[in-house]
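[recover] target loaded
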C-alpha cells in the first residue's frame, strides 16, 4: 500500500509537512481540528503537493528531510 508525503499551506503562511495513506482524509482531519497540534492553531488552507512512496519507511524518511526545509524551499518543492 503506498504512503504519501504531503505539504499543507496554512492560514498563517506556514507550510506543514506530514505523511498519510489517504491525503484527502488526513486533510479533513487537520481542517476539523483533529489532526496535528500544529494545524489546530494554524488552520490548513489547501494541499500544496503530495508525493507517493512505496511504503511508510520511505515516506517517513522523506518527511524527515523535508521538515528541515524552509517554507520557501517547501513551496519550491511543491511547485516542481
Amino acid at each position: 500500500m503506498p504512503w504519501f508525503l504531503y505539504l499543507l499551506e496554512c492560514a498563517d503562511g506556514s507550510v506543514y509537512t506530514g505523511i498519510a495513506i489517504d491525503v484527502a482524509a488526513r486533510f479533513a482531519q487537520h481542517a476539523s481540528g483533529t489532526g496535528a497540534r500544529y494545524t489546530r492553531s494554524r488552520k490548513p488552507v489547501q494541499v500544496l503537493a503530495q508525493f507517493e512512496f512505496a511504503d511508510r519507511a520511505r515516506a517517513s524518511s522523506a518527511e524527515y528531510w523535508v521538515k528541515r526545509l524552509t517554507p520557501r524551499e517547501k513551496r519550491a518543492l511543491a511547485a516542481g
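[recover] notes: Strands lie at 3-10, 15-20, 44-53.
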